[in-house]
Amino acid sequence: MAAPISFRLLPDPDVHDLLARTLERVNKACNGARTRALAERKSGKAEVKSLVKEELDRFKLPITFSTAATDRVLASLNKQKFGTYQSLVLPASAVKWPASDRVTLPTASGKRTVKVYLDPSRGSLRPPLEGKPTALVYRNGDFEIMDGTEALAAGAAGPVLPWQRD
Which band of pLDDT confidence, cut at 50, 70 and 90, is reported for residue 69? Predict the structure, then answer.
């Protein structure tokens, strides 16, 4: 399987810090919702979604993260907790491309437009990930975005919860 194509974000220092704080807070909210779901033995999407919304409110995050956080909590119920800067797959509706070299992403403080480095050798003027789920990745001190379709497909099988195992 080929590696997904990634694009480096070129945020200014303030937006870089905001993106880092956003990932950190989203992951803490997801860990809180995951812990509560396991403790209360809740595995239905509606049940987990309500827990996620409560945690997002507690961490003062916009409701824009609800779908992404719910999906990742459901997929993680039988796995380890989330790391501080673990990547986040945002639904296609949350990511906008006002130009081919800029992307608007949700953050903890509202939406921010960030420059994207597009390799000129790829030659397309069309926004590369428009209409696709997009993963926000923090790697080696830099942010990247990449096609999140593969990450969503990996979690599509659904979790086998600890109390459902043989």
Answer: very high
For residues 31 and 128, give the distance between their C-alpha atoms in angstroms, rounded to a whole number: 31
Question: Each residue of 60-75: b (16+ CB within 10 Å) or e?
Answer: ebeebbbbbbbbbbbb
Average confidence (pLDDT) over 80-93: 86
Pick the closest to residue 89 from 64, 109, 68, 73 (CA basis): 68
Residue located via tokens 């403790």? 39
Q: Which helix (H) or strand (E) element contains residue 117?
A: strand 110-117
Long-range contacts of 107-112 (CB under 8 A, 24+ apart): 107/15, 107/18, 107/19, 107/22, 108/18, 108/21, 108/22, 108/25, 108/26, 108/60, 108/61, 108/62, 109/18, 109/22, 110/62, 111/64, 112/11, 112/15, 112/18, 112/19
Whole-number pLDDT of residue 162: 43
pLDDT score, position 79 = 78
Each residue's pLDDT tens digit, 20-63: 999 999 999 999 999 999 999 998 899 999 999 999 999 999 99
Structure tokens at 35: 């812990």
